[in-house]
Specification:
It is a single chain. This protein has a domain of 64 residues. The longest helix is centred in the last third of the chain and has 26 residues. Helix content is 41%, strand content 28%. The protein has a 6-stranded mixed beta sheet with strand order 3-4-10-7-6-5. The chain has a 3-stranded antiparallel beta sheet with strand order 11-12-13. The mean pLDDT is 85. The chain has 352 residues and is an alpha+beta fold.
Amino acid sequence: MGLVLKIIQIVLSLLIDDEGFPISFDIYEGNKSETKTLLDTLDRLKDKYRLEKITLIADRGISSSLNLQEIKKRGYEYIVGYKIKNSKLSDKILDRNDYSLISFSEQDGYYGYKEFEIKENRKIRTQEGYESIELNHKIVATYSDKRALRDKKERDRAINKINKKIERNALKGKERYLEKYCEEGKVKYRLDLNKIEQAKKYDGFYALACSDISLSALEVIRIHKQIYDVENAFRELKTDLNIRPIYHYTPKRIKGHIIVSFLSYFLLKAIERRLKYNQKTQGLPITTRRIIKSLKNINAIETDISGKRYYLKAKYDPLASKMFEILKIKTLKNIVSEQEIKDYLSMSQKTM
């Protein structure tokens, strides 16, 4: 008898506040497009929380598939990543002569911006085919030495990976900086030096398209940075709380799993917020990952004394000690019996 494995994909939307604190979530079937689930989520949030203004923040990967005109029709604003390559503004954006300084430091180097107001024609896919739309938005371009260094490192990493595949003859022709050529009647691959040189021109540059023309360039940059809080929330859910994989396949059980994960994350962020604003933890690195790690390091050594089982409490992590003190959680003695541990756990359950 064969084993039948059923795989179900879901889409999770998470609402957080400006400090990364989770407020609510929604679950959608995985076969629904991001555009549909996104607009549905925005509509429900607006009605539920009576929000007067909603600004959608999205990166370049998602913004290309969004119908920005539909977002505007529904009364929402947007700040989305703007693709510089192949755009009419690419030459202007790459010209650093008229950039305005945001900051400069010995560690991170230069960070600056410039802005434009443009009308842009885009083609979007509809049920009937393609439709041409006109968008009015402000383009805010930024350049930073720190980002340029990161872009170079990512490209060098990709090139090194390709070179190793060339040595092993394991290329499939799908790598970014690769070109195909024919030698002695055989198809071969090599590094595309022209593509690499073209990519270097864009190191350090990033651009945003904003529908709200009244916002200043610095406000646009500040608001868009909130996307990293959302990405960090999902990263913590996936890695620190292991929200996936989900070993359930009925909608009720899947939702139950998400609810437990959401409540766990809510508790973690509540602890994090409590610790961050306490004088006793000033100077300590406070993150959800650090909290989980400090709690996992709490252990005891089992030993036998006169035929009876005892446990020797290991030294607490500094953050765990402060956490217990601030949250007023009673800790065990340095040496405890098996019965004392059972009584302690029983007492902890009653106080929850």
